[in-house]
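WARN retry 2 of 3 for item q-0093 after timeout on previous attempt; input resubmitted unchanged.
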Amino acid sequence: MTAVLRARGLGRRYGRRWALTDCTLDVPAGHVVGLVGPNGAGKTTLLSLASGQIAPTTGDITVLGETPGSGPAHLAKVGFVAQDTPTYARLSIAEHLRLGARLNPGWDDALARDRIARLGLDPDRRAGRLSGGQRAQLALTLGIAKRPELLILDEPVAALDPLARHEFMQVLMEAAAEQEFSVVLSSHLVSDLERTCDHLVVLVDSRVRLSGDVEGLLAAHHRITGPRRDPDRLAAGQHVVSASHTDRQSTFIIRTDDPIHDPAWTVSQVSLEDLVLAYMSRPAETASAGRPVLEIQR
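OK item q-0093 returned
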C-alpha cells in the first residue's frame, strides 16, 4: 500500500494537555478517507500536523513521502480547506482567483473559472456577501484549482444546511474523480462520509480506535441478538465492540472473520454509523505497538 499520510507515534501537546497521543496510522493514496470522531478527539490537530501548520511534540509524520510544509514544492502538492472555510470578506470571487493564481505555481485558472460559472456565482461578488454554502464552494474551488495530489478538509460542511452540504460533497466527489487526487475529510456527520468515503479512520480521546477500508470493516462486523449472555461466553474469535442487555436479551456488535454458527443468535449487518458509534463509545484500550485497536486493509 502506498501511503499518502504516514504517522508513527505521533503526538501533539498544548501545555499539559495532549491533543493527540501515540498516533500510528497509514492513510492510503488514491482514496477518499473519512476522519471521524467526537469534538475534541484530535481531528483538527492531526490535520494541522498533516498540512504543516504545526509541528509534532513527539513522533513522526510524512505526507506524500515528505515532512509536511517542508518547502514550496511540497506545499504546492497539498490543498487545505479549514473548518471555517476561510475567505476574505472584502475581496471579490475574481480577486480570490487571482490571489490563488499568484500563490500557487500549479494553478489551473480555467478550471477555477469553470467551476465558479457552473456554481452560478458572480465573479464580481464580494465573499462577505456570499452565503455559507457559497463561501464553502469558493474555498473548495481554491483548493481544487491548485491541482493538489492531496486535498485535506477539516469539517468544511459542519455549519451548512443539508442542501448546501449535499452540493459541496457532490462537487468534491466530481473533482476527486476527474483529477484523481487523494482526499482526507474530517467530519462528525457520518451520513456525509457514508456517501463519499471508501476508507475510514475513527479517532477518539486523541487516539486512533479504528482504521481501514470501509467495505472490509463492514464485512468484519456484525450485530448479534439472542438470549442474555455474558460477553466472555461468546465463541472464540468473536471480539465484542459494544454490548447492551435487557433482562432476557443481549445485543452485541462483534468483529470476527469466522462464520457465526450458533442458532441462538440472530445476525444482522451493521451500518457505518453503527460501527462508528460502537467504537466511539468503547472503553479506551491500549493497542500493541501503538497500532489502532483495529486496522483492516484490503
